[in-house]
Amino acid sequence: MNAIPVLETERLILRAPGPQDLPALYAFYGSERSRFVGGPCSREQAWRSLAMEIGHWSLRGYGRWTVEEKATGAVAGMVGVFNPEGWPEPEIGWDLYNGFEGRGYATEAGRAARAHAYGALGLSTVISLTRLANTQSAAVAQRLGATLEGTFQHERHGMMNVWRHPSARQ
Fold first, then answer.
1. I need a surface site. Which of 39, 93, 97, 106 has the fewest CB within 10 A?
2. CA 73, CA 49: separation in Å to the nearest integer?
3. C-alpha to C-alpha distances, 7 to 121, 128, 132, 142, nearest whole angstrom
4. Which residue(s) pair with 79 in the sheet?
5. pLDDT truncated to tens, each residue of the chain (170 aa)?
6. Burial class (CB in 10 A: 0-12, 13-18, 19+), 99
7. DSSP 49-75
C-alpha cells in the first residue's frame, strides 16, 4: 500500500486514519449522530468500521481521511473518496463527529477530497450518497455544487439520494 497522503485546508488537516482515532469513533458510533451511517453501534462494530476505513486505502488505493482541526488537533470526523463493494461508483463521503457540525468543515474537507479525486486519482466525476432523511448531508452536497441525480437502493442503508458533483472539467 502506498503512503496515505496528507491534505491541508485553511482550518483542517486530512490525515491517515489510525488507532489513535478510536476514542472519537467510539463516541460518534455510540451516539444518535451516527444514525445515517450505520449507527448507533457497539464499540466492536465501531472498531470494525475503522478497520474497514484503513483497509479501503489498501484495497482501492484511496479512501477517507481522519479530519483534524488545525487549531486544536481535535478529531472532527472522516471525509474522503469512498467506494466499498456494493457502491455504484466512487463517492465523496463525510461524517462529522459530535460538536463539529455547523462550522463548514464537511464542505471544506469535501472540496479538498474532490480536488484530490479529480487531480491525483484522475477521476472525471464523483457522486455523494445521502440517506433520504439526512437533510444536513444533502445541504453539504448542494454547497459543494452537486445536483440531485436520482436514487440508489443500498442493501443495508436503504434508499439513498445520488448527488452528482460537477465534473473535473467544470
1. 39
2. 22
3. 14, 20, 30, 22
4. 65, 94
5. 579 999 999 999 999 999 999 999 999 999 999 998 989 999 999 999 999 999 999 999 999 999 999 999 999 999 999 999 999 999 999 999 999 999 999 999 999 999 999 999 999 999 999 999 999 999 999 999 999 999 999 998 899 999 999 987 76
6. exposed
7. HHHHHHHHHHHHS--EEEEEETTT--E
Q: How far apart are the first and last CA of the chain?
A: 31
| Sheet with 7-8, edge to edge strand ranges | 7-8, 12-15, 64-69, 75-82, 91-96, 127-131, 158-164, 147-154
Residues 25, 43: contact at Cβ < 8 Å? no
| Contact residues for 163 (Cβ-Cβ < 8 A; gap 6+) | 127, 128, 129, 130, 138, 141, 142, 146, 147, 148, 149
- Euclidean distance between CA atoms 59 and 68, whole angstroms: 24
Are 159 and 150 in contact by the 8 Å Cβ rule? The answer is no
Which three three-digit cell numbers place residue 145? 455544487
Which amino acid is it at 65?
W
- Under 8 Å between Cβ of 68 and 77: no
